[in-house]
Each structure stands twice: as C-alpha cells, then as structure tokens.
Amino acid sequence: MNNLFDKTKKILSASMAGMAVLPMVTACGNVQEQKGPMNVLFIMCDDHSYQTISAYDSTFIKTPNIDRIAADGVKFTNSFVANSISGPSRACMLTGKHSHANGFTDNSSSFDGSQQTFPKLLQQQGYETAVIGKWHLTSEPTGFNHWDVLIGQGDYYNPTFICNGEKVQREGYATNVTTDLALEWLENGRDASKPFCLLLHHKAPHRTWMPDTCDLELFADSNFPMPETFYDDYSTREAAKVQRMSISKDMDIVYDLKMADKDSTIHSRSDLEAWGRRMYNNMNPDQKRAWDAHYDVVIEKFKAAGLKGKELDAWKYQQYMRDYLRVITSVDRNVGRVLDYLEEEGLMDNTLIVYTSDQGFYMGEHGWFDKRWMYEESFRTPLLVRLPGSEVRGELKNMVQNIDYAPTFLELAGVEVPSDIHGCSFLPLLKGEEWKPNRDGVYYHYYEYPDEHAVKRHLGVRTETHKLIHFYEDNVWELFDLRADKHELNNIYGKPGTEEITAVLKEKLVNLQKQYNEEEFIAQ
Ligand code: SGN
Ligand code: CA
What we know:
single chain, Alkaline Phosphatase, subunit A, Arylsulfatase, C-terminal domain, 3 domains, ten-stranded mixed beta sheet, 14 helices, 31% helix, binds 2-deoxy-6-O-sulfo-2-(sulfoamino)-alpha-D-glucopyranose, binds calcium ion
C-alpha cells in the first residue's frame, strides 16, 4: 500500500499540473473550492433490481455495503434508462446519447468505438481511465488506458477476459475476480499522478444467477412474498400477452433453476437443458463439489415433491429469488471490499462513487423475470451517488436518466459538455443546487424484437404522473396514470376523459423526438 507521504505528493503533482478545480459543498450549503481533480468510480451491475437493494427496499435482502454509498450520499428514486437492455444501455451511458444517435440499438449491434465517449473526453483532460468487467459492446473498448473485459455476457465461473487485447482465463467466481482486478489496477496498475475514472462493471446478477460457492446455503429456508401482480392477466396490454419472460412458462427448470440431475431424469427445453448441463461442466472439481453438496439435495427434494400448477410456480419463484439474492450477496460483499480499499487509501474524500445497474429487473412482478419494457420495474434503475464534500443526503425524486451520467462526470472533471450530448448533468442536484433539465419528460426507445423474450419494439415518454407508450409496429398505444395505477395494470389509452392528457403527452413525445433528431419514429 502507498504511504500517506506518497499520496500527498500525488495530489500535489496533479493539482500543479493544472487539473480542474472542483466545487465542494459545506455543511451550510456554501460551495467551497477544493483543489485537485475528483476521481470517478462508476460501479455498475448487470440486471440489479432496485427491489433488492436495502437502501431502496428491504423486503428481500440487506445490502449493507451498497447502502454505505447511499448513507453518505444520495439515492435517486426516479432514475431511468433510455433503452432497457445491456449493450444499448451501456452505449447510452458512454456517449450520453439515445440509442438511435450512438448507433447501438440492440444487443446484436457493434459499438462504433471511434465516436465521442465520456472516458475519451476525461482521458483528454488528463484522467487515467479503465474499464474492468462486463463490456458487452462487441467492438474493443476505446478511450481507456486499461481494459480487462469479459467476452460477451461472460461466465460466472472461471471466466475468460480480454485484457488489453489478450485473452486470459481466470480461475474463480466472476464477481470476486472482477473486484480483484479492479483493486489491483487501483493499487498498482494506474498512473497515480493522475485522477482516475474506473468503470467497474460486474456481470452479476445476470441470468442464470449462479451464486458463489460460499453463498449457496444462504436463504435456503427463506420464503419470499410473491408480488401481487404475479398472476397478471395483461387484460389491457396487448404486447404483454405475447412476451416470453414468464417465470411460470419460460423460466427453465434445468437451465435457470439448476435442476441438472446426475441421472438425467429431469428434462426441460432441449437447448436450455443442454446449456444448463454445460454450465456445470465449466467448473473446477472444488467448485463442482460445493455445487453438488447444495443442489443435489434440492434436486432430490424437488423430484420427490412432484409439483404442478401454482405449487410449481411458487417453487420456481422461491428458487429464482434465492439464487438471485445469493448473487447479490456476493456483489454487496465485493462492493464492500472496494469501499474499504478507498477508505484505507484515503481516496474517499476525492472520489465520486456511483452505483447503478444497466437496467432494472423483474422480481416476479407481472409474473416475469428479465427487463426490456418501459414499465417501471425495468425502466427504472437503481442509482446511488456519493459526492465527497456534499452534505446533500437522502432521496432525490427528480427524473434522471442514464444519458445524464456522461455530462455529470464531465462537469465534475471541469470538461465542457459537448453540445451534441442529449443528457443533462445532474451535478447541481448532488450539490444541493437547483436543477433545470434540458427536457420535458423522459424519452425511451426499445428495439430488440423478437429475440428470445418477444418484447415488441416500443417508445414512449414518462412524466412525473403519466406514461405514454407506443408499440409502433402494431400501432398500439398504452397510457398509464402512475398516481392511480402504480403497477401499470390499467391501460387507459382511448378511454373517455383521457383526450387532453393524451394530447399533452403526444406533444411531449414528438418534441423529445425532435430534440433528439429521431424524426423517422415521430409518433402518429
Ligand atoms: C441473454 C439472456 C436473456 C437476456 C439477454 C439480454 N439469455 O441472452 O435472458 O434477456 O441476455 O440481457 S441467456 O440464456 O443467455 O442467459 S442483457 O442484460 O445482457 O442485455
Ligand atoms: Ca442487463
């Protein structure tokens, strides 16, 4: 570890090199000038629902380490994505632009790495930049001094990374390995005379929610409350009737729920069953032993129970939740390791810490797993931010979006935000100042149909009170009054009395499309 003297030297040399002078909020709300550049630690998980972060909701799990970020900072309760799926969401974050403008509209796209991104702009400002963990943008990362990323979705066990162009397979569990790599880069990899921007992006808790061996017994006796919308009949929502992300119908017993029995008497959808059995084969003998010690017992009980119908649904839900929460436990523990490191190294006072997910996720609401929809559970994403020096605490209700991260980081670093960026810096909110976003409502566009979960393409606008969605290929509209119908069960589009609000929302939608130059999709 570096000693304090070395650190003082580093900070001095950086500020003498003419780095940004950052504002700092005092206890009485005044802004003080703090010398020296602010580091950025941008932690992101894949598919981490706000329902499973105790800073938001402690129904399911306690996440004491992730909550540390909120305790010394803020939690956004209306934080949204622009396109609720991995690659597109990441491209929106990197560029600060909606999908049609950054070109990465669905997971089959390849990111044009020659375009402007916030890591590149920070790098030009003298930052040392790195991305470690999930990348999922197909092309090689650009704008990073160091990159060590999983291939595609990456594996939970013994994953292969591409480290600055070289393939490396690493033994261990992905969340631990990714954290080890991040700590190693912070400690020995970076040029410590420069401020850093580290994108620490976990694969977890993405499907198939494989826990670390040390967490397998957690929650074994827990029974989680099934959401009240689990048996939603989608009676007012046409697109929701044809999706394929139902826990009851589409969640696979062998692949998703790990019932890969050794004598192969349990069968599921043939391709998924084969994958489910293959995932196990990727483990080393110790990992397999720990896995078997847990799942073999669950498998035998499952076989003996012979469950059907609603009993089987309930079992699937519990099994899904247990594995998902075990994976979150590992994420939380590893977030704690990083925070401890920053504390030990005296970096807490000079590092902006962000915790988020590439989108929200269904924990059985509407009967679903997965994401993609503009409905709240997947459109909304967790966002916890700790800005050193700021006294602002608690909940921020302003509607922010993942296109806002890039301009926020740029403003923090003293970089002029390029005018072609769609997002809007929310740094003023973090400092307790007035925030005037450059938009009237939040715009959304999802493109990946049919793909494996059959969610129709749609776009829409959300205000603080309403949401208007257009499934434009079928010309089907949905309108929700979010105050009266928080679960979005009652589509009131076309109902008497909604003419005025519909017209207002359509105008907002068209205006946003014009603002973002997405004219080919102008709503009818
Ligand atoms: C994989 C998953 C899907 C998931 C997509 C997108 N199937 O294809 O369930 O919706 O990723 O997720 S799996 O069998 O490969 O697990 S994303 O968040 O990475 O975009
Ligand atoms: Ca994701």
